[in-house]
Amino acid sequence: MENPHSESEIKSAIPSVESDEDDSEESEYESVSEPEELQHQEQNNGSKEQQSEDTSATSDTGISELTLVLIGDTNSIEFGPNNILLDHDDQANVEQFSSKVYDLCGRYISVINLLGVQSKDQIPVNQRIHAFVLLLPNGLHNSHYSSGVQWLEKAFGRESLAHLIPVVTHQTGETCESALNDLKANHSFDERRYHTCRRSMTDGKEIADLLEKVDVMVSENDPHWYREVIRRENKEHQEHKEEKTEPSVIQQNQTEEREDSAAENKNDPVNEASDAEKSEKIDDNTTPGGEPEIQPLVPPASCDPSTGEADEGKELISESRENRSEQSMKQNDTVEDTSPTSQTVSSDTTERTSDEDLSWNKEKQENVSEEMKKMNQYQKDTEVLFSRLHLQDQQQQKWSSSEFLQLGSSMKQQHEVSEKDLPHAFLHRLMMLDYRARYIPVRPDSSKVVHPKLDPVFNTTETDDSDLEAFLSIKTDKHEKKTTHVHPMDVQMAVFHCSDNVLKQIMITKLSQCQYALPLLVPDPFTMEIECPLWTFRHITKTWKVKLKPQINDDSQIVITKSIPICKAETPLVSFFRLGSLSVSKSQLMNTLINDRHSTFFHRHCPGSTKSRHLMDGVAEIAWYCPAGKANDAFSDCIAFCNLHGDALSIEKQRDILLEKSSVNVVLVPTLQKDDKSRSLISALFKSQKPLICLVDDSCDAVQRIKGKYKMGLKDKSHSDVSEELKRIIGEVLSSLDPSSLKPTFQLETMAEVSGIRVDESDPVCQRGKSVAMEIMILLEKMEVSKIKDKFLPCQGRLWHEWCRTNKELYHLKGDIENERSKKLRHLDQIRQRQCDASCSKLMKLFTKSLMSLPSTEKEYFLNWIQILVDALSTDDLSSILQSYDETWSEVLALKNKKEDRDKNSVELSRKQIELEHISKKLQSATFGLEHIFREMGQIYEAHKTMKSESSRTDWSKYPELAADLMISGHPMELMDGDAGHVPLKWISSLLDEVIKKLGDQRVFVLSVLGVQSSGKSTMLNAMFGLQFAVSAGRCTKGAFMQLVKVSEEVKKGFRFDYILVVDTEGLRALELAGNATLHHDNELATFVVGLGNMTIINIYGENPADMQDILQIVVQAFMRMKEVKLSPSCVFVHQNVTDITATEKNMDGKRRLQEKLDQMAKLAAKEETSNEECFNDVIEFDVKDDVKYAAQLWEGSPPMAPPNPGYSESIQEVKNIILSKASVSAGITLSQLKTKIQDLWNALLNENFVFSFKNTLEIAMYRKLEVQYGNWTWTLRSNMLTIEDQLYTRIKNGKLDQIEQSYLLKETSKTYEEIKKAMEAHFEDDENKETLVQWQGRFESKIKEFHDEQVRGVKRKLDGVIEQKKACKKMDEKKTEFENKLLKKSKELAQQLKDKVHDEEELEKQFGSVWDSLVHELTADAKPVEDINLKNEQLAVLLELGIEWDHVRESKKSWRYKHMSELGDYSDYVNFPKNRSLCETSAKGKDNRTESKDTNTQVRSFFRFFTVTIPEFLKSGSTIQQKEQHKSHRVLSCEGQELIRELINKVEKESLDEIQSKPVATKGYVSTYLLEVAKSVKEKVTKFQSKYTCRLKNEFTVDLLLHVFDRMESWLLESQKTFKENNDALTYLNSKKMQYYSIFRSFCKGSSSAVVLGELIRENLRDSAADAVYNRTAHGLAGEMKSNFPAFNGNRLNFEKHLLKSLAENEDFNGFIKYIRKPRAQAEAFIKEEVEKYIFRDHKERAENIFKKNVDDINTLVSQALSDATQKVQTQRGDTNMWLSEFTGCLSDVLKFEAISSQNFRDINDFQFLQEEVKKGLKAIFEEMKELSLDKIKESRNKPDEILIDQLCKCCWVNCPFCAAVCTNTMEDHSPEDHSVPFHRPSGINGWHHRGTVELSINFCTTNVASDRNFYPHHDSEKSIPYKQYKSADGMYANWRITADDSKLPYWKWFVCKFQKQLEDHHKKEFQGRGEIPAEWRSITKDQAIESLDEM
Questions:
Q1: Residues whose CB is less than 8 angstroms from the CB of residue 987 and which lie 6 or more positions away in sequence, other chains included
Q2: How far, in Å, CA of 1771 to CA of 1765, rounded?
Q3: Beta partners for residue 1096, in sequence order
Q4: CA-CA distance, 1343 to 1338, in Å (whole number)?
């Protein structure tokens, strides 16, 4: 029961440590003195309880209206002064009223803070509780809800759940709408009792709503429920105690009377006190009627281990320290009744009435009272001990294994610790297999331990007899109180009592590994109940060797190995008992029998031993002697030895149990005198049939024997003599065939049958776990292990192995690759389907159902039981197989070493090796463990997920979650299947995904280990981190396992990660693998493990250089591969089993030799990996001084009885410290990154060439994100530059600027550029992956600088062109001004004449036309008009001049073939093939097409040999007669030839465009020679091509190419000439202004003032200018919006490519596809234009119009402001019209183009306010009209949105894959040294590739080819083919590409081939047939699936 008293009361009941004294010189028990405060406190207990009850009652009546208990995680709330509910983080042990709640609602509400506390002890006594508030942090609400509910139910019972309200807390701004749905989906609770609030809890409304929900809940519940819970707990506790007794009727009546009395006085503190006093009196005055006979259980006082003297205690049950409630005050009355061994008194005893009987009863009652006092004192001493060790709280809240299986602070052996830290230090060292855990030095300055003070030193200068007498007379003050340090075994047992059963089991297993004795019978220090911790032994397996008796006439001895779970081992049991006090140590004597070099049993002479031992008396310990099968074995078979601590005379129950179970009893007695109190027990043992050995302390007799009974004296005999004699006697007894000697065998499991004791396995939770496990084991009864796996685990056997083999074959394809690959993929799916069909075995159903349904504690027991029971199944099989394996392996070694008769030996050796392999397979099939069941879960999951099946028979989708829970709780999980040698990627990925869901994407430091088989890797990891990887014989690690080790909070601040992921691996050089298989497997494993780890431990065993070389070669090669793929793990070499690790010189020499060996291996590996490293330091950062550590040998002696070497543990801890030191500077990786890394490594390992195949997905993802940032940075720079360009352009046009300096542009852009640089720096420094990003930082900074400088240069270049144009138009501009002045003057004069005819429009037009024509003629009289270009005539004239016939031109124009010349699929029609067929004919069978005539010119042969293919005249039978006729004797160019001609066309086109665009057409006009120059250049290039490749191209080719080039440059020429004409043709300009000036003329005629006319002139001047500015701004704005928001444009290049392909598929436009394939950039530009068109004019038209209107308003505002500023300045300075115009145009010079207006015609204006209003009035109408303008004119703006985006998005890499022509997707144009790459290659047949000598288009992907064994010819003239796997060796364009041999083939391109098969065949004039036949699977892909697959990019 929980302690209802406050902590202060408990402390008062525990005497201070200083008063806890045990006089080591006295044998009698000396009680601990009680302080007066304690007695006073006990007297006042009642009053305190009454006060508490009164407080509670008062609260009920009005002071405390509501009591809330906060439970959950401390991270779910923010403590602070403003927190309304709780403003502090202290756990309250008294009720605390919340003042802020009172302020909020005027109510007194108590809030008890149990956040983060796992005990209810903090709740005040008799506190009334109304509701539990479970705080759940958002995001972790599911897992925290489950754990919170479990704890509440466990602590307060199931009914407490009705009083629970969960509250999900969240950060400010965070949303948690999904939390309720999550909780409802996974749990069942009342939605009304659910709440959310901020973690700060500062919102009054949220708290008020919560309290309202609490009130509703309280009103619906029983208000007195909690008091009933407390009462029931008290009652259950009392009944539990009474169940242990057999009270008489009288005792029962007495108990009932006292309970009734107690009930009456329950609320009366005075009565309670008097009852307590009465209880004490009853102890002294016995009532008539007799008392039960009380049998002793354990001495109430500590026995002196040196003398062994102890009082005979009586077995009594003291009050529990947790049960000091009002009931405990009455417990003394009936304490004798609660004795578990009390017996019913006979009826005649109750009738004694004589004085003698009364006297006897009184004496007995006095004895009982004395025993009661001693027992109370024993209880107090126990409490003091636990208090000194700070274990008070662990009695209720037991330690769990998770608290110790985490990374804590390291502790060295020589480090002293304080007493309070002893338990932790003991457990930690025990976990590390350091048997010195018992000998931990305690810090001497501990305030709790009083050390003896030395008297002052005597002055020895004049020593006399008096001084001597004084010295000899010094005595110790017996009354001096002192406290010695805690006994080591008290520490061990205290930790044992404070641990839960799982931790106890781990602890006992570790003690067993340390070869220590284990507790078999343990009295509970508080209840005195005897427990047998049988459960803790379940994981212990003992191995020993037994020599069998040789056959007759056979001298050879057979040694067999036995390996048996110790609980099932049947062995003799030899029990040792001490009767009375002895001078010899029983435990020490027993050690000499088992292992005289190791203290198996702790004894008085062990370090740290004291006479104050407290918890060991009554404990029976057991240990086993295991022989090694050698001649010097002490015993020939395994024997159990049991040691009962304390005086067996007073420990009857344990003694009787052991006497019953023993095979031989050994009794140590001080004497055998008749009056000795042990005589009666000796007599009983002598009469027993069991062998008895009496060792007498005061006798020196030799051994005497009588009928199996032995007696031997100990006096004057050495330990060794006694030991040897005892060994002989025990051996003789156990080997005796005397039937009268009864020697039963002992089996631990039978302890469960012993009555009167408690067995830990009887706990209900353990039993439930076992019962579920037994349901599964029933299925496996009487079945062989191999058959079990075949029947119940079918998915991981043959099917899984076949799948792995087929999957690996995918990476080594031959022949018809793609079809072969399709077959294998079909086969893989078939296997998966068969796995799905077989995945519902009963075993797996039961197992997974149990995992899903059992609570966490029961699940832990269940898994343990499964492991225990399954291990037991295979133990017998394994033992015999291992025996056979060892024998055969020894024979193989012997045959290898034999030098004579090699031929005969060779045959025999082969036979033995085959036999060894057979045994190895048998061993593999006989191995069956929990890991196989988890492996089956993984395979079931993978199968169903692959097939996307929905099974009603198995809930496979939850398997990863189940495994994740176990992994988080510390279970190792299989990473690589050791039997199949494969990593189940889908299973591992989903498992890690679930871990991430539960823990978050935590950072882990991955620590892996590599070493040869059986070199102690797992043992080292277990010792390093306290793990439990399998290390027993026959259970060598297979594959790789991973286990999470949490970094504890105390050391977390020193690390940047949250967990260490330990990866344990199988050994290299496994015996069962042979030859190349071993090498390949080892290299694969080493590469995987080294690549996965942030650090790898290289474990070297022994000092054999040959063994060292084997592993070093593998390791160095693995590290070299990591360097090649830019992974940089670190390593530590651990050299185990070194004989002398302290020999510094020897170690330095060893390190030097290791360095030399590593350098040598590095050179060898460099040759194999085609690298240039010279030494190991070139491969990895390595310091031989710091990174090589030596470890002592594991065992201190020879197994199986040798304990672990403490030096080994210390060495491993040093290694651990080095690892952690290195790890502290590492950030590790996130779990999601780990998942990706596993996939990348394994996918690359499946290929032969790891380096070529490795694809670092993590780096790729980071690089792509960086590309997005790069795009944003460059866009910011571009956008800023566009703004600057617009301003300067307008200024130039306004004549305000006639020169641009680059320095000025740099200055203008400097602010934005600096901001970008700061943003870049912050990105690289603050990103969580900055360690990876740093490799690109310099390159990206350089690229940003290049981009910025290029933008500056580009803008300067454009503006310089504008300035040149302006200068070229200067003369024209001057004429414009002169013309305007004359026109205005004439208009004024004419208007005066015609003012009477103002309404005669015809007359006005006539008169104005006359003046206009006159002035125009005058102005343009000497100017030559600019003519338009007639390009058709120009082109024809050029062609004729080049000598090209008109018929050819006409034919070409008619066919229009020239327009798409660069996108044609076949150019064969353009080539003149030689008439001599032998030049181009090829044998259909000739692989290399080398058939040729001897007299043929070599150069001609070189072209046609590789560039022509003859279509075979025998087509496939499926072809029609028409097709056969059509193809007969038809010759076509090979793919290489096609590509060369296509390259020529593209090159000529680009160079011609560049040449024509370099001409000054826009500034100086078109000249006909421009076209002729270009045409001549084209013809020249064609001639050079023909000469270079000695081929003849038809004239049609040249004509088409010239027309193609002319067609491409036509639009640019026309646009440039138009610009020139607009700027330089006066007539054109004047005609454009006619209507504007007619309008002004009319105004003059109407009599308008000058101000009105000037206003109209200004308005007309601004109309077009403002429109241009608005359209330009809108173009910028829309481009920016699309860049930011449009999905296709707002990412990196890859994202853009994805949307481009989606668009092509949706449109199903074959020509668009061909354009994309042939000219990807042109298609990309077309796509951008199309998307911009749709965005602006269709999809987001309204948004575009709003942007346009906003820009209109902005320009209007600017103009209005300019008007206002100009008017204000003129008025202020009394200026004129000229000043007003100058100021007005100056304000707008950066925004609007403004043609100069002469002020001389408007000098009469003096009312500038009126002028301003006139201009505004006219502008208002203009701007309103402008808002209604169409967006179409945006296409005519100077900077068009599509062109801006094309400049931004298309300035990237456009290099094509040399195989399939897929485009590199790097965002940067020049991304060297990064290779070109693309995540989605395509079938090369799309690009026209076909099989040589055929018309069979290829369907192979590049990624398939580079994984195959095929070859290719890299160039058209290549004589030698190159394997695809070595494609980079072809140099040139191949060397710069990275094509990973993986499965990154998009269904998209498969769909495309099937969809457009016919069009592709027609385009290329080839067919998908033969080896190019399309696989059937491709045709099942739909368009939707194809588009969806693009998301994989």
A1: 937, 938, 939, 941, 942, 960
A2: 10
A3: 1008, 1131
A4: 9
- Could you say which DSSP state residue 710 is in? E
Q: How confident is the model at residue 592, as a pLDDT?
A: 92
pLDDT band at 239 (very low <50, low <70, confident <90, very high): low
CA 1487-1489-1495 angle, to 5 degrees, is 150
| Closest CA relative to residue 1644, chosen from 1413, 1407, 1389, 1819 | 1389
Q: What's the pLDDT tens digit per position in 1123-1137?
A: 888 888 888 988 887
Give the sign of the dihedral formed by CA 1659, CA 1663, CA 1664, CA 1669. Answer: positive
> Across the chain, what does the average pLDDT equal?
78
Going by C-alpha positions, the residue among 870, 1044, 868 that lies closest to residue 970 is: 1044
Instruction: Return all residues near 1671 (Cβ < 8 A) that are at least 6 apart.
Output: 1748, 1833, 1834, 1836, 1837
CA torsion angle for 1678, 1681, 1682, 1687 (degrees, to 10)?
-160
Q: In 1105-1193, where does DSSP find H-type helix?
A: 1105-1124, 1144-1168, 1176-1179
Find, among 1577, 1545, 1541, the residue nearest to 1469 by Cα. Answer: 1541
* Dist CA 1227 CA 1000 (whole Å): 16
pLDDT band at residue 1520, thresholds of 50, 70 and 90? Answer: very low
Strands 620-625 and 518-523: antiparallel
DSSP character for 1877? -
Q: Cβ(481)–Cβ(19) under 8 Å?
A: yes
- Beta-carbon contacts of residue 1719 (< 8 Å; ≥ 6 apart): 1462, 1463, 1546
Amino acid at 1557: Q
User: Nearest 5°: CA angle at 29, between 23 and 32?
Assistant: 70
Q: Can you tell me the distance from the alpha carbon of 584 to that of 564, in angstroms, rounded to the nearest whole number? A: 34
DSSP state at residue 132: E
pLDDT at 342: 36
Three-class secondary structure of residue 665 per DSSP? strand
pLDDT of 370 over the 70 cut: yes
Which is nearest to 163 in space by CA: 67, 297, 245, 298?
A: 67
Phi-psi region of 1794 (alpha: psi -120 to 50; beta: other; left: phi over 0): beta
- Answer yes or no: are the C-beta atoms of 1731 and 1740 closer than 8 Å: no
Angle formed by the axes of helices 817-837 and 798-809, to 10°?
A: 160
Mean pLDDT of 1871-1882: 86
Distance from C-alpha of 747 to C-alpha of 537, rounded to nearest angstrom: 12
Q: Which two tokens stand for residue 1146?
A: 């020897």
* Paired residues of 1136 in beta bridges: 1101
Rounded distance between C-alpha atoms, residue 1960 and residue 1967, angstroms: 8
In whole angstroms, give the CA distance from residue 1274 to residue 265: 88
- How far is residue 661's CA from residue 1093's CA, in Å, rounded to a whole number? 52
pLDDT at 1448: 77
Quick one: tokens of 1246?
A: 């499946």
**Treating both helix axes as pointing N-terminal to C-terminal, what angle do 177-186 and 141-156 enclose, rounded to 10 degrees?**
50
Bond preceding residue 1200 cis, omega within 30 of 0: yes
Amino acid identity of 1145? E
Tens-place pLDDT, residues 1737-1786 = 999 999 999 999 999 999 999 999 999 999 999 888 888 888 998 888 88
Are the beta carbons of 1815 and 1794 closer than 8 angstroms? no
Residue 568 contacts by C-beta under 8 Å, 6 or more apart in sequence? 747, 748, 749, 872
CA-based nearest residue to 1784, from 1807, 1758, 1804, 1810: 1758
Record the tokens describing residue 1678, joined without a space.
């829309």
pLDDT recorded at residue 1140 = 65
Beta bridge partners of 1192: 1138
Task: Give the mean model confidence (pLDDT) for residues 1927-1952.
Answer: 83
**Among positive and negative, which fits the CA dihedral 1607, 1609, 1614, 1615?**
positive
Do residues 1974 and 1955 lie in contact, with contact meaning Cβ atoms separated by under 8 Å? no
